[in-house]
Each structure stands twice: as C-alpha cells, then as structure tokens.
Amino acid sequence: MKKFLELLGFDAEKKQTSIKTELIAGVVTFLSMAYILTVNPNQIFGAGSEYWASAFIATALGAVVGTLLMAFFAKMPLAQASGMGLNSMLGGMIGGWGGYGKFTPGQAFMLVLISGFVFLLLSVIKIKGKTFRELAFDGMPASVRSAISVGIGLFIAYIGFQNAGLILYNGYTQVGFVDFTNWGDQVVNSLVAPWQAAKTATVALAGLFLITILEKLRVKGSIIIGILGATIVGIPLGVTDLSILAGNDAISWKFWENFANFFGGENSVFGSFADVFSEGLVPEGTSVFTIIMVVITLCMIDMFDTMGTIVGCCGGNRILSDENDKPHNYGKIMLSDAIATCTGAMLGTSTVTTFVESGSGVSAGGRTGLTAFTTASLFFVAMFATPLFAAIPSAAAASALIYVGVLMMKENIKSVDFATPIHATSAFLTISVMVLSYSITKGIGVGLLAYTILSALSYLVEWIVSAIKKTEKPVWEVSAVAIVVSALFAVCFFVPVSLF
Fold it and tell me: pLDDT tens-digit profile of 438-496?
C-alpha cells in the first residue's frame, strides 16, 4: 500500500493531506465533471445518434486514461476528459448537432490525433533546456498570468450558474437572471429545450448555501455533502429524477451491449481515425489550408486551456505550485495532456484535456495523484453503473462549481497585477473575455495580444519622445516568446477558416 501511494506522490506530511481527504477530493472532482459522459456524445454526434453508445464508452475511457496519467505520471490532483468547446467544434465539423458538417468522424478524429502529436512534440522538444510549452508559460507577462486564476474562477462559477439555470438566455441583453416567480419552463440556452429554471436554481443555491455553512463550521467533505444535499432537495422539486436509476435506452445498466458495440459494432467510433487511409484527409470543398488551420486551432486551444486551467487550479497554493504560480511537475502535466489527446482521438472522442472542474477537488483538499486516481476509478465504474451517477442532477453539481469560483476569487484577486495602465488593461481583458466568450484560450489570447500591442505602441511613442528630447531610451519588456505566441493568436483570431 505504501509503495502504491508513493507512485501517486502521496506524502501526508509533506503535502499536508490525508488518504480520506484525497478520496473525498477525487469524488468531488468526479461529481463536478461527470456530466461530460452524456454531454460529450450529444455535442459530437447529437442525441439519438447511432454513434451515441460508442461515443459514451470512448468518452469514459478517454477520461480514465487521461486522469490516470495525471495520477501516476504527473502525480497531481488533476482530472482529464473530453473538453467542452472542443467537442462542439468537432460536432460542427462532423455535423452531429447541426447536420451540415463537411468532415466524416474519421477525418475529424485524425485531425485531433495530428494536433495531439504536434502538442506532444511541443512538450518534449527542448530549446535551451526548456520545452516550447515551458517557454510559453515563462514568457507570459505577469499581468496576464496573474489574471488567469481569477478569470478561471469566474468562468467555473459561470458554468455553474448556467447549469443551475440561474443565468438565462435573453434575446435583448444576451443573458438574464432566472425569474423565481415563474416555476414553469424558462429558456436557459437557445439551443436547448426550456426547463424549469427556478427549481434547478433553487436546488443549486441550496447546495451552495449548505457548502458555505459547512465550510464556516470547518466540516470535512463540505462540497460533496453539499452536492448530495442539493440532490435530496431536488427530489420533491422534480429536479432529481430517480427514475433514471431504473435505466432507459440512453442511460442503461446493460454495459455489455455498449462494450460490444464499441469494440466490434458497425456504429463504433473506436479506431475510426484510420478511415482516412481509404477516404482521404481533406473533405470535398475544403482546402489543405483549412486542415492546417484546424490543427493549429486545436493545438492552441488545448495548450492554453490546459495552461490556464492548471494555473487556475494550482496557482497560489504553494503545495501545488512555486512562487511564480507555476504548477509543480508542469512538464509532466503537459505531457500527460498531450498523450491523452492522442489516446482520445484513437478511442474516438474529441480532444482530452485537463478539466477546469479539477479546481473543485483541489478546493476540497486534493493535493496528490491519489485524488486523480480516485476520479479515474469512478469514471471506470461509471461505464458499468451509468444510471447511478446520472441520477445526480447537474444543478446539484453546479453548487460546487459556484463555490469553487468563490474560493478562486478570494485567494487570487489580490495578486492580479494592476500596477500600470497596460498591465491593468491586459489583466482586465484576460478575465472578462475568458468569462464572456466562454473560452479560457480566448481570454488568454486577447489579454496577451493587448499586452503586446499596447507595450509595442508605448515603446514606440517613448522611443520617439526620447529621441526628440535626447533622453534615455525606453526598455523593451515583451519577451520573444510572447511575441511569437501573440502572432499565433492573431492568426487564429483573424484568418477565416470554413469548417461547415
């Protein structure tokens, strides 16, 4: 047992943790992100698709492999699964939910695999002793880097608000607040059928308040108790659907049928990436340039989503990161992410990446790979007992996400670099765009571009002034890596690519 724990980096005294705390943290992380098991197949192929059951298994296996890499290789309390946003992009390419995609599943998954290999190369090839991904982190301006944790905290909370139905769709202002006087259906998302948002919001707030009170009383396991408490509150409100425990066509106890279809069925996504050797990689009506841009986009999103997530989850915690908020075992975390992406593509799922919901486990006390191992184990069990976990409503898990946002704001807002107008503007854009665009990568990209452009313009003006007044020349503060990464973001933002 001791050797096994050592493989996971577990050291109770050094990491200031315990086996019980790590196990609870792993459960909290799983409950916070278990929704991906059913949401991911819906996003890529659409509900009712012949690929749905196969995609479900691929999603679970991708999460198991990726999270086990974090447990044993990186030895960090971080979990991986098919990334939201990335799966929507893939779904649009295939046409799973829109019906107009140009790519076949094989072509789409091959592009994910290629991006994973590129990502892998960037994680192992070193320049002056550092990989490109380490250079990208070290070259990130302090104003942007310090804003990431706050932005991600708000982003996690915003996901919780949406899942809870606290934030609604509004045709005039884009977003609105739930109407507690209306216990009927309300439009939370224009692409999703309306639901009784006042009830789900009540469930989430009940869970949030329970977690907060338990934290005030210093009760261990407050987050998981809050999730379970919210689940119970949801029963009389009709939010918690206990009939799911009996199983249905989409969420079934008949795991053997899912496995049989995954490994040998006609409608399996397993290994579908290899279909490109017979059907080709470039769809009709699509250019090679589009393929290149898709791969670059996938790489950029995965790299900076991962970097932002791990900084947000581990930064500020000296057990998990250094004085610059750089997570320990950074290189191994990134390598684990890259390998998981490749594995996920071969299994038949979208880019597997580090989940921002890992912050819920860290907030619950997770400090080592034992947390990740627990989460991975639950994802494995979920393949055999899907109805059990599916019965926990997303509104209940949302309470944990909102509270994690509270903690990340509380612990990191004071460290944001607002020292100068340029630093303040780039930090503000990083935080606000990350939340409002629903994208960690876009937040980092806009913040970094703003910093680089503003610094360049400021340097130019100061240089001209110094030349006229014959005073000391200004100092150039933007690193070469920041310039390169800014250029890549500019390409991704401004070069049009037609996927649909």
Answer: 888 889 999 999 999 999 999 999 999 999 988 888 989 898 888 988 998 898 888 76
Which long-range contacts (C-beta less than 8 Å, at least 24 apart) are formed by 213-217?
215/403
pLDDT band at 500 (very low <50, low <70, confident <90, very high): very low
H or E element that contains 75: none
Any domain includes 82: yes
| Residue 360 lies in domain | 2-494
Instruction: Establish if 499 belongs to a structural domain.
Output: no
C-alpha–C-alpha distance, residues 484 and 423, integer Å: 19
When pLDDT is cut at 50, 70 and 90, the band that residue 126 belongs to is confident
Amino acid at 124: V
Asked if 305 and 353 touch (Cβ cutoff 8 Å), the reply is: yes
pLDDT value at residue 95: 62
Question: Structure tokens of 25?
Answer: 């943290």
Q: Report DSSP letters for 59-74, one per residue.
A: HHHHHHHHHHHIIIII
Angle at 392 between CA 389 and CA 395, to 5 degrees: 140
C-alpha 226/C-alpha 236 separation (Å) is: 17
Considering only 226-235, 301-310, 417-426, which range has the smallest mean pLDDT?
Answer: 301-310
Q: Alpha-carbon distance 490 to 484, whole Å?
A: 10
Nearest to 452 by CA among 491, 420, 486: 486
In this structure, what token pair is assigned to residue 36? Answer: 């991906």
* 143-181 per-position pLDDT tens digit: 888 888 888 889 888 988 988 999 999 889 989 999 999
- What amino acid is encoded at 156 in this protein? I
**CA 217 – CA 208 distance, rounded (Å):** 14
Helix axes 142-164, 440-469, angle to 10 degrees: 150
108 located within any domain: yes
| CA separation for the pair 273, 266 (Å, rounded) | 15
Does the residue 227 lie in any domain? yes
Do residues 491 and 295 make contact, with C-beta atoms less than 8 angstroms apart? no
In sequence order, which residues have a C-beta less than 8 Å from that of residue 6 and are 6 or more positions away? Answer: none
Rounded CA gap, 90 and 280, in Å?
18
* Counts for the chain of helices (H) and strands (E), in that order: 22, 6
Report the C-alpha gap between 433 and 291 in whole angstroms.
27
Residue 100: predicted pLDDT:
46
List of residues 6+ apart from 221 with CB closer than 8 A:
24, 364
Domain count along the chain: 1
pTM across the whole model: 0.79
344 contacts 82 by C-beta, under 8 angstroms: yes
